[in-house]
């Protein structure tokens, strides 16, 4: 696994350099969903510190002990967040990348006010305006951001997207990056194992890479 991790890191660095972007311009979020804590430990042993998980319950079982041992570990929630899991999510995650609806924004604001813990939030943008997919429509992002920040006081620092699987991702990455620039948001999370180099070329500050690092996901038998 460490060889694959090194390869991804090298590809990110080379692509960023070719675009005139400096060292550290792109953060690799190693997506460890469905992989055991031992795989995360192996990545930690070679200096990886930023990880992404899709499910609150899985992360809750895997990461508290690792965070105790590695205080600089940063954990990102990159999957959908149900409002009944907000308490656990705010307690465990350092970044919530999937702020995708007003009801969730309200719940996060309430929990942050109660606990004083304020993980950074990224607004998930439905760049393809797919009816079956979560996220804020591009035309509604500015109003949603204003409400999250001004009324609810949420620490929104960026945008994320998952392009439609059957479309060229570049146009979606370009749209997200331009939207972030226009809104003055510093963090742009886009790109996964199959297209992270394209995302870097279009200005991603965070890429979410799982399979290219950890290999095929070991899904449990039905």
UniProtKB/TrEMBL annotation:
InterPro entries: Ala_racemase_N, PLP-binding_barrel, PyrdxlP_homeostasis. Its cofactor is pyridoxal 5'-phosphate. The modification N6-(pyridoxal phosphate)lysine is found at residue 33. Residues 5-218 form the Alanine racemase N-terminal domain. The keyword NAD does not apply. The keyword Phosphoprotein does not apply. Keywords: Pyridoxal phosphate. Pfam families: Ala_racemase_N. One of its GO terms (molecular function) is pyridoxal phosphate binding. CDD domains: PLPDE_III_YBL036c_like. Pyridoxal 5'-phosphate (PLP)-binding protein, which is involved in PLP homeostasis. Belongs to the pyridoxal phosphate-binding protein YggS/PROSC family. HAMAP family: PLP_homeostasis. PANTHER family: PROLINE SYNTHETASE CO-TRANSCRIBED BACTERIAL HOMOLOG PROTEIN, PYRIDOXAL PHOSPHATE HOMEOSTASIS PROTEIN. This is Pyridoxal phosphate homeostasis protein. It comes from Azospirillum humicireducens.
């Amino acid at each position: 696994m460490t060889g694959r991790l090194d390869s991804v890191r090298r590809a990110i660095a080379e692509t960023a350099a070719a675009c005139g972007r400096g060292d550290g311009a792109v953060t690799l979020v190693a997506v460890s969903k469905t992989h055991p804590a031992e795989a995360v430990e192996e990545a930690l042993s070679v200096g990886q510190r930023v990880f992404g998980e899709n499910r609150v319950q899985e992360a809750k079982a895997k990461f508290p002990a690792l965070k105790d041992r590695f205080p600089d570990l940063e954990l990102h929630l990159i999957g959908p967040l149900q409002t009944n899991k907000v308490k656990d999510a705010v307690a465990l995650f350092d970044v919530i990348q999937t702020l995708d609806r007003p009801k969730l924004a309200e719940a996060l604001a309430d929990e942050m006010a109660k606990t004083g813990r304020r993980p950074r939030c990224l607004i998930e943008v439905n760049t393809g305006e797919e009816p079956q997919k979560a996220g804020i429509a591009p035309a509604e992002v500015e109003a949603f951001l204003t409400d999250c920040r001004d009324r609810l006081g949420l620490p929104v620092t960026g945008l994320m997207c998952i392009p439609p699987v059957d479309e060229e991702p570049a146009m979606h990455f370009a749209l997200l990056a331009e939207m972030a620039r226009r809104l003055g948001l510093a963090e742009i999370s886009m790109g996964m194992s199959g297209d992270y180099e394209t995302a870097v070329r279009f200005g991603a500050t965070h890429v979410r890479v799982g399979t290219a690092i950890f290999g095929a996901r070991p899904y449990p038998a039905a």
